[in-house]
Structure formats: C-alpha cells, structure tokens
Design goal:
Elements lengths: L25 H8 L10 H12 L2 H12 L15 E3 L5 E3 L2 E3 L4 H13 L8 H8 L3 E2 L3 H10 L2 H6 L22 E7 L5 E2 L5 E2 L1 E7 L5 E6 L5 H16 L4 E3 L4 H4 L1
Parallel strand pairs: 3-4, 5-10
Antiparallel strand pairs: 1-2, 2-3, 5-8, 6-7, 8-9
Length: 258
C-alpha cells in the first residue's frame, strides 16, 4: 500500500487531530478491507494498512522498544510479558498472535463491521463477535467498542426477537405556543472521524430542533463529549441566541440525564 494516511492539506500523511490520534481516509480503509471475511486470515492489503498505522503510533513504538529490551512496557501492563507481545516478519506488532490495531476509529469500526455483518457471521451478539474479532486483532477497548456496535446494529434491532416486557403506551407531546419554547436534542454517532481547519477531529453531530418551527441546528462534537462541554455548547449556541427553552425533549441518554 503506497499511501494510507492523510494530512489536513490533502496530502497522504498522518496528522494529530484533536484527541483522535489518527484520521485515516475511510475510502482507503474500505479498499484495504474489501475482500475481508470473518473467518479468513487478514489479506495482505489490510496487514499493510495496519503496518503503516503502527509506524505512526506511540504505543506501538513503546511496545517494540520494550520487546527489544526484554522488559515490560509500563506499570499498567505488568501482566503482559514479552512472550505475549512480538513483532512478526513483516514488522507488525502482535499480541498472542493477534495484530494490534492502533487508535483509529475508522479502521476499528470497519474490522468490527466485517466480522459482525459477514453473511457467515450471522450478526452474532457481543460475546461471539468479540471471540471472532480477537482471533485476528487486538486493541484495549475492543469489548466496549463491539458492545456499542452490536447494540446499535440496524439489522439486529429489526430482526432479533425482543426479550423485554412490552413498552407502555405513547403519550403525545404538548404543542409549543411559540418558537424555541420547546426543543428536542439528539446525537448522530458512528460517523467516520473528520477534522476542521484547526485539525480538531469530530465523530458525532449534535442535532437541536425547535419543535414549533422545526428549525434545526447541527453542531459537530465528539461522541465522548462531557456534560460540562455539552451544557456550555447549549448555552453559547442556543440559550444565547434564542433564550432558555421551557422544555427539552431527549432520548434520555446518559449525556442528557447526568
């Protein structure tokens, strides 16, 4: 693979992007994984992409140095000895035979999608999907990332039998009497990361809609945005411009209820 990383000026190099360490072109990720399946070994194109990604990753460099010196990487990894981590003939860092995937959301999500959505994979639940993915790949937050993906999988939500008690009856919301008296808030997540002119990376969109006029405001955010930052954004962009709404309608996600 000749180039697989991008800089903000459009050239194919890697760049630090406001908290998301890497901004990998989604089209290049798709091209490298187009022939991947859940039960086959990773193709050469994907191994080359991971190798390029590891070259610019600080954690990978630290582990490789620790393997060379025959010592532990840090206090958090005391249980991981140099026998668990090794570098293969291609120079790819592996843990117990599984290729290490650096912190690139586009690559990690594509790997999860391949192994969960594969026709022979059957849209398994979290535990089975984790078992399949960790046969070939490793990253620290794999379980949490796969849980989030499976929970929001459209096919699983439509086709799998619900095991919860019936929901209560819906109640109509009161009709607001004037603009910006009542607003609704929701977040669009699972988007490929993108960076602005200042190299700040975003992977979600906060949508705020006035329920009276249906005017919508869209704000780029991180899906890990905190309560304080969310409140500050709402104050600066909504309250300052339109006043404090009498009511706010949300999906009762943790970011809105905490």
């Amino acid at each position: 693979m000749s180039s697989s990383k991008r800089q903000c000026d459009g050239t194919n190099y890697i760049t630090s992007t406001g908290g998301l360490e890497y901004l990998m072109l989604w089209s290049l990720v798709r091209a490298a994984t187009v022939s991947e399946t859940a039960y086959d070994e990773p193709k050469e194109s994907l191994n080359e992409l991971l190798l390029e990604l590891q070259k610019g990753d600080a954690s990978t460099a630290s582990w490789k140095q620790s393997i060379t010196e025959g010592c532990h990487c840090n206090a958090r990894s005391m249980k991981d000895n140099q026998n668990e981590w090794h570098v293969d003939n291609q120079g790819l860092l592996r843990r117990n035979g599984a290729a290490y995937v650096p912190n690139d959301p586009a690559v990690r999500q594509e790997i999860i999608q391949i192994n969960h959505d594969d026709p022979y994979g059957g849209h398994f639940g979290k535990a089975k999907t984790v078992e399949i993915v960790q046969r070939k790949y490793y990253w620290p937050t794999m379980g949490r990332d796969i849980k989030d993906y499976v929970r929001t999988c459209e096919v699983c939500q439509k086709m799998k039998t619900p095991r919860h008690r019936p929901y209560g009856e819906l109640q109509s919301l009161p009709i607001p009497k004037q603009p910006w008296e009542s607003v609704s808030m929701d977040m669009i997540t699972g988007l490929p990361p993108s960076a602005d002119a200042d190299s700040k990376a975003y992977d979600a969109i906060l949508v705020i809609v006035d329920r009276f006029t249906k005017m919508a405001k869209y704000f780029p955010v991180r899906k890990t945005i905190g309560v304080v930052d969310m409140a500050q954004l709402f104050h600066d962009r909504i309250v300052y411009a339109f006043g404090t709404p009498a009511s706010i309608v949300t999906d009762r996600g943790s970011i809105f209820t905490s």
